[in-house]
Input
Amino acid sequence: MGASYIPVDHARISGRQVRQNSLANWHYIPPYFMRRVCIFWSESTGKSMLTQNLANYYNTVYVSEYAWGLLDFKGGPCDFTKYSPLIAKGQMAAEDALVRQIFCDTDLITTKICSDVLFGQCPQWTEDEGNRRQYDLYLLLNVDVPWVDDSQRFLYNYREEFRDRSVFKL
Output
């Protein structure tokens, strides 16, 4: 018949209890019911803070922007051929590994736009995979907070362009 067993009641909790307070019983909900929310915009708009705060509020985990962890140790800009594919693949792997999460601090569309702006190119598979991945909700942040400079932010003069490219892609 094609049926599959999905364990949801090992702790003797009823479906009614899960429905009545789904946030408190989040860990009983199978992963395929999970929703993904992408916090999306340019650099220095508050994405990371908002992502962390939403995950804390909803008692779940979040996926950080993979590029930060990869590039932070370098203390400077990345080069296209070495890091662009690693950033895209790392972002995908982080999201897939945390399938129960619901908040993502970036996505592959962001990776593609950054690569286009910084390097004038992006691997086609990154764009294809970015278009294939689905999120249930995008939260677009505005460029209305002060710029915070650090060793990884380079798009200060491109924030509005990034916004315009992003809205077109979504």
Observations:
- The chain has a mean pLDDT of 76.
- The beta strands are 37-40, 62-63, 103-104, 137-140.
- Residues 36 and 135 are 5 Å apart (CA to CA).
